[in-house]
Specification:
Blueprint: H1 10-38, H2 48-64, H3 69-92, H4 99-115, H5 119-134, H6 136-145, H7 148-164, H8 181-205, H9 211-221, H10 223-235, H11 241-266, H12 268-295, H13 314-338, H14 340-350, H15 355-368, H16 373-399, H17 401-424
Length: about 425
């Protein structure tokens, strides 16, 4: 914890701020020095010493002049030297980027921040800058993981969201006031964002990954698509049935994690009610997956190829919004006419198609007071149970009985554990 300024002698204050400024410069400079050595660059514009001195200059400039005139002058001098150095190196290496030059500017500004006493900003900024600089190869790989069609589909979805979301009415419409256009589209963006992270990870990982890792990452994108893809691997004898079953179970454990994230964002009371069931179910699921994985033959990992669609395509997003609206209407009607039993029935039926939609609908209704948190939690748990029942059937039908029986048995244990945990809680 940083001591308050008034408790430090002037000399200690100066040394502390300069130490942070110099350290920030050295961290960034060391990364540049390491990268340059890795790429076998013999003559470079700036290395560890240059960056360290730049941080020191920024720190001194920030301390000696409250008006920041000296800092501005230092920025101009460093900028001029940087431009000259860049022009020289650009002639020798056509097409080179300007990352190191931008890092120099960042180092100077972070040094000024440290000199002014913004130590956390300077330290965090230096570490963040060094991390970003070190990700050059990884970022190139990530960029190549998505093709042009996928990038365009994602950009169109984001553009439509940015343009449409602000003009959507933030009011309740329809029977029982169950529909709010802005809330509906916000939910689509929330689920699409979570799914896209998983989709992106699947594309980055590529082929040749084990089924456990495939289940873990694929479940974040789509547990249904992952279940189907892994079941096909068992059918085609790419991986052993026990290994495939372990991957399918793990994918659906991740689905429970998704439910928890949605509830944290939309309704803490429902999350607190459902947390014991989700936690116990997830823990039991992981245990079942590990038991099946250990029982599988060595070398049963197989290639992890998961066939999932980009969740940021416009048409599927519109279909998903319509599904949320339909379930919201059905849930509001069921709760109004039949009470808790109606909400539970909607949860069980909607789970046959999708868990996320019921989770969003239940969380929204609990937040508005239309459903009690306990009833919403029960309906969501029923949706999860009916959804994994469908996936168990899918595993039997596509992956064969050796895979399906293992999956169904694990799912039955998971569902029972979750129900008991919810009842006890």
């Amino acid at each position: 914890m940083t001591p308050p300024l008034e408790s430090l002698p002037d000399a200690a204050l100066v040394l502390r701020n300069l130490a942070i400024a110099v350290t920030a410069g050295f961290i960034i400079g060391f990364e540049r020095e390491w990268t340059q050595a890795l790429e076998k660059q013999q003559h470079t514009f700036a290395g560890a010493r240059t960056f360290t001195l730049t941080g020191l200059i920024g720190g001194v400039a920030g301390m000696v002049d409250d008006s920041l005139t000296i800092a501005a002058a230092a920025l101009l001098v460093v900028g001029a030297l940087t431009i000259v150095g860049y022009r020289i190196e650009a002639k020798e290496t056509p097409g080179r980027g300007g990352t190191t030059e931008m890092a120099i500017f960042a180092t100077l500004l972070l040094g000024v921040a440290a000199g002014r006493g913004f130590l956390l900003l300077a330290a965090a900024g230096a570490v963040t800058t060094a991390i970003v600089l070190s990700l050059k190869s990884a970022i190139r790989h990530w960029a190549h993981a998505l093709d042009q069609r996928e990038i365009h589909a994602t950009l169109r979805f984001l553009a439509v969201s940015v343009l449409v979301l602000p003009v959507l009415p933030d009011e309740r419409f329809g029977p029982f006031g169950a529909l709010n256009p802005r809330e509906l589209w916000m939910m689509v963006i929330l689920i699409g964002g979570m799914s896209f992270i998983g989709y992106w990870l699947v594309r980055i990982m590529g082929e040749g990954r084990g089924v456990l890792l495939t289940g873990l990452v694929g479940g974040l994108a789509s547990s249904t698509a992952t279940t189907l893809s892994l079941s096909r691997m068992a059918k085609e004898q790419i991986s052993a049935p026990a290994a495939v079953a372990a991957g399918i179970v793990l994918a659906n454990v991740v689905m429970m994690f998704r439910v928890g994230v949605i509830l944290v964002a939309l309704s803490r009371p429902v999350f607190e009610k459902l947390l014991p069931a989700l936690g116990v179910s997830a823990a039991v699921g992981v245990i079942c997956a590990m038991i099946m994985w250990r029982a599988s033959p060595k070398g049963a990992a197989g290639p992890g190829v998961v066939e999932v669609r980009n969740p940021f395509e416009i048409r599927p997003a519109i279909y998903f919004a319509a599904l949320i609206a339909l379930i919201s209407l059905a849930s509001a009607y069921g709760a109004s006419v039949f009470g808790a039993a109606g909400a539970y029935a909607v949860g069980a039926i909607s789970g046959l198609a999708d868990v996320d939609a019921m989770t969003l609908s239940g969380a929204r209704q609990a937040a508005s007071g239309a459903l009690a948190p306990g009833v919403a939690a029960g309906a969501i748990l029923l949706a999860i149970s009916s959804n994994i029942a469908v996936k168990g059937t899918m595993a039997c039908a596509v992956g064969g009985m050796k895979t399906g029986v293992r999956v169904v048995a694990a799912f039955a244990i998971i569902a029972a554990a979750g129900a008991i945990a919810l009842a006890v809680a």
